[in-house]
Design brief:
binds adenosine-5'-triphosphate, transport, ABC_Transporter_VariousFunc, AAA+_ATPase, ATP-binding, six-stranded mixed beta sheet, 288 residues
Length: 288
Amino acid sequence: MNNVIELHNVSKKFKGFEIRNISLEVKSGFVTGFIGANGAGKSTTIKMIMNLLAPDSGEVSIFGLDYAKNEKQIKERIGFVYDDNVFYESLNLKEMKKIVAPSYQQWDEKLFNNYIERFNLPLNKKIKTFSKGMKMKASLALALSHNPELIIMDEPTSGLDPVFRRELLELLHDLMIEEDKTIFFSTHITTDLDRIADYIAFIQNGRLVYNNEFHLISEEYAIVKGALDLLDSETEKEFISIRKANTGFEALTSNVQSVKDMFGKNIILEKPSLEDIMYYSQRGKVNA
Ligand SMILES: Nc1ncnc2c1ncn2[C@@H]1O[C@H](COP(=O)(O)OP(=O)(O)OP(=O)(O)O)[C@@H](O)[C@H]1O
């Protein structure tokens, strides 16, 4: 299976924050959701993938190519959507398109017009009058109209209402079905991922803690519930973090088999949601 994005031992240090030695592979033809708490390093990683920020060390390769020699060729094949405002707000969409289109050999005017129609966007109204949802649709129309193989989005659903979020996820789903695309997008709305993600990459405090198939998460992690008297300094080592209440404890583990062997029928095991995994991992970090 080909990887479209490969990061190898990538590090980047800011004052008070560090991306530490991330190695990440994004599989061709699938949707990978990139999750992590606020400030975990998602945007920083995406900027390095887009060559908007240079790593201090490590290698970034896209389609097996490096940016030093192939920047134009790589960017031609990527559609990039991000949350920050990318428009000249005093222009309308028609004028904005005239700026963007010539950058791409593969620009497809018909496809652009299809998106404009599908999203019901006005071509002659100034972009500064657009709502947040309209701006996101406009970004998508501009990013997808050169037929990119790889679509990278930094928090495309943030701040969007549930109806448009669903619409956006459906569009991405359609793109995956109709064409052979790869999508990599960051979000902290984990329920978005239930709909379309095949793989999950999870970053915490600048480290990649998980990058694997979505459905395998429930085999690798479990929520454990049991009585407080099962816990002591030894057994607690099995857990990423533990929530204790008078009625018992609830905890996340990534040592599922060992917990089963240790506690047998004295505990209840449940499948964690992505939100559970993020919550307990973040809590573990805070308590550590
Ligand atoms: N150019 C920069 N200079 C200094 N620090 C930075 C810079 N860019 C990002 N950071 C810091 O790096 C950390 C990670 O930020 P980043 O934007 O990558 O997180 P994120 O996971 O995308 O968060 P969010 O979900 O809130 O958007 C933060 O502490 C941020 O303040």
